[in-house]
Amino acid sequence: MTGNTRSDISFRVNEENCQLTVDNRTTLLDALREGLDRTGTKKGCDLGQCGACTVLLNGRRVVSCLTLAVAADGTEVTTVEGLSRAGELRPIQDAFVRLDGFQCGYCTSGQLCSAVGMLAEHRAGWPSAVTDNVSPDCPPDLDEAEVRERMSGNLCRCGAYPSIVRAVLETARKETSR
Question: What pTM does this model have?
Answer without folding.
Answer: 0.94
